[in-house]
Design a protein that fits this description.
345 residues; alpha/beta; TIM Barrel; 15 helices; 10 strands; binds (3S,4R)-3-hydroxy-2-oxopiperidin-4-yl beta-D-xylopyranoside
């Protein structure tokens, strides 16, 4: 009996210790003013992509999100493959946790993303035209109604274009034709009339074939009455820097009466980076902030992750990484101070 009791106590202690270790220690506070406060003072909502599993398991990661950012974007948890892995079966749990955590921290949430060729469950690709149209309608309605009042902004259509300015041959384009874009916006407005609706694009920051096409697409959709509120520029950069014409490009979209958000900023480096490269990276980050500050309609700047330990760049681009503001140990890199300075400037 006594042995049993000792064993039980031992087990409780071990499990407890493992839980605490799993949670990690508290975050080392970062120097200077939190990014969210600096952004708020300038009228810019500063956000980050978050990963639900890390947020749940890693205390320092969770604390830094709450302390530093005014808005969050679930990095993957609101993508179709995680929200609707089988047709008609919606799994909101992970995304719900991110949303709750954000609201508890006084943050807003950007929903990402409703109609996107990437990270689709296999079943979507097997649908015919009528079925896919029904599935798109059901997905947008179900997801946006679920989050109505809690998620105020949505990337309704993500990465619809190719670099050469053509429409990307996604299952949506192939089955539904080019009208799917306008249709998705109409469905989104119906599902949650209060949400801001964005079209989000990668590689359309400079004035180039893609951004020219995006401009014509959005202008034409708007003139046909499609409810588009804003344009998101992902701003995935590297040491090539901020493309010339970024500010002018944002301004022509602004002139269409649209809001602008920089939605996924990061600056990939060759790994391991040199001191000079970290310095150059900090300047690219500063220019991203300055570019947003230069455009009245740009009121939102989200980083695509905030620690090099949890970033898609090393996970998807061999030889590249170190793309975020903090290193793998959550210590500030030169880029962190550069962003603080640029936000204070
Ligand atoms: C990326 C995530 O960061 C990765 O974790 C995932 O494996 C693939 O997708 N453009 C987008 C984002 O709109 O959804 C992508 O996110 C990065 C590029």
């Amino acid at each position: 009996m006594r042995r049993l009791a000792v064993g039980a106590v031992f087990a409780v202690v071990v499990i407890g210790a493992l839980l605490v270790i799993g949670q990690g220690g508290p975050a080392e506070p970062l120097p200077g003013q939190p990014l969210r406060a600096l952004g708020n003072a300038k009228g810019i909502v500063v956000g980050t992509a978050v990963r639900e599993d890390q947020q749940r398991k890693n205390r320092a990661y969770r604390e830094l999100i709450a302390a530093q950012f005014q808005s969050v974007t679930p990095e993957n948890e609101m993508k179709w493959y995680l929200l609707q892995p089988e047709q008609g079966r919606f799994t909101f749990e992970a995304a719900d946790r991110v949303v709750k955590e954000a609201l508890d921290a006084g943050q807003t949430v950007r929903g990402h993303s409703l109609v996107f060729h990437g990270q689709l469950p296999l079943w979507v690709g097997k649908l015919g035209r009528r079925e896919l149209e029904g599935a798109m309608r059901a997905h947008i309605a179900e997801v946006m109604r679920h989050y109505a009042g809690r998620v105020g902004v949505w990337d309704v259509v993500n990465e619809a274009l190719l670099d050469d300015g053509g429409l990307r041959p996604s299952p949506f384009l192939k089955r539904l034709g080019s009208g799917y874009i306008g249709e998705a916006f109409g469905l989104a407005r119906k599902a949650d009339p209060k949400a801001k609706l964005y079209i989000n694009e990668i590689g359309a920051e400079g004035i180039n074939a893609k951004s020219n096409r995006l401009y014509r697409l959005v202008r034409d959709l708007k003139s046909q009455g499609a409810p588009i509120d804003g344009v998101g520029f992902q701003t995935h950069f590297n040491l090539g820097g901020v493309p010339d014409g970024f500010v002018d490009n944002m301004r022509r979209f602004e002139a269409l009466g649209l809001e602008i958000a920089l939605t996924e900023a990061d600056v990939g480096l060759p790994v391991p980076p040199t001191t000079e490269q970290l310095e150059a990276q900090s300047q690219v980050y500063a220019r991203i902030v300055e570019s947003c500050l230069a455009v009245k309609a740009c009121k939102s700047l989200t980083f695509w992750g905030f620690t090099d330990g949890r970033s898609w760049i090393p996970e998807t681009q061999p030889g590249m990484g170190a793309a975020t503001l903090l290193d793998e140990q959550l210590r500030p890199k030169p880029a962190f101070a550069a962003v603080q300075r640029a936000l204070s400037g």
